[in-house]
């Protein structure tokens, strides 16, 4: 069996992320890991999280897919336009720059700027925040993929696939509702770091969740 693991919002929580890698490695010897975005801000070690993700898995058996979250978007906007800086700092950017001992490293900004907004396989769609089902998948706006808030009880057809996202934290997450799974369980707010496990050959939602206490 082949598996895809979708890891929820990390927000600078490096140690839970390291433990999550150990748990995933125990679960399977190979697979795909999709990081759903929001690697930075609010938590203690945003720099360490990006360092780890940029270095990759170090194994040909594992494929890592890193998606952009709205906090990476805020950071990039703040460094491109001073008018955006205060807003970012007030939403966790201060802690991010503290982890760098000053400004965010240029190569980290470049890495963040090149992150994809969506990843899809035969049975699933992975984005940071959500999608608008009334629009074709190829016409989704970056603003929605990064910033949309999906009601807790909402689901749709999603073009015959299962949608997996983060962005909207809740004590009830990770949670599957119909054709949708939210894996943001608020690690940086004291909840666990969560990961949804999908069996690649099976359509539908996760077969299991892995959780690491933040």
From TrEMBL:
UniProt keywords, alphabetically: Hydrolase
InterPro entries: Ap4A_hydrolase, Calcineurin-like_PHP, Metallo-depent_PP-like
Top EC class, one word: hydrolase
Domain of life of the native organism: Bacteria
Any one Gene Ontology molecular-function term assigned to this protein's record: protein serine/threonine phosphatase activity
EC number(s) given by UniProt: 3.1.3.16
Keyword presence, Hydrolase: yes
Record's keyword annotation contains Hydrolase: yes
Pfam families to which the protein is assigned, alphabetical: Metallophos
Calcineurin-like phosphoesterase domain residues: 6-169
Protein name, UniProt field: Serine/threonine protein phosphatase 1
Organism: Rhizobium mongolense
């Amino acid at each position: 069996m082949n598996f895809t693991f979708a890891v929820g919002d990390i927000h600078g929580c490096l140690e839970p992320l390291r433990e999550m890698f150990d748990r995933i490695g125990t679960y399977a010897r190979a697979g795909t890991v999709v990081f759903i975005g929001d690697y930075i801000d609010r938590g203690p070690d945003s720099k360490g999280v990006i360092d780890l993700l940029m270095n990759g898995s170090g194994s040909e058996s594992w494929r890592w897919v890193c998606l952009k979250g709205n906090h990476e978007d805020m950071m990039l906007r703040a460094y491109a336009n001073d008018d955006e800086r205060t807003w970012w700092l007030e939403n966790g950017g201060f802690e991010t720059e503290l982890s760098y001992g000053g400004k965010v490293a240029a190569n980290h900004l470049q890495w963040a700027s090149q992150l994809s907004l969506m990843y899809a396989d035969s049975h699933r769609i992975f984005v940071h925040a959500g999608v608008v089902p009334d629009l074709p998948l190829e016409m989704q706006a970056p603003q929605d993929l990064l910033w949309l808030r999906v009601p807790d009880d909402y689901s749709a057809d999603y073009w015959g696939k299962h949608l997996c996202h983060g962005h909207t934290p809740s004590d009830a997450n990770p949670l599957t509702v119909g054709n949708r799974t939210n894996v943001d369980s608020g690690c940086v707010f004291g909840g666990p770091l969560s990961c949804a496990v999908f069996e690649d050959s099976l359509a539908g939602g996760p077969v299991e969740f892995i959780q690491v206490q933040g």
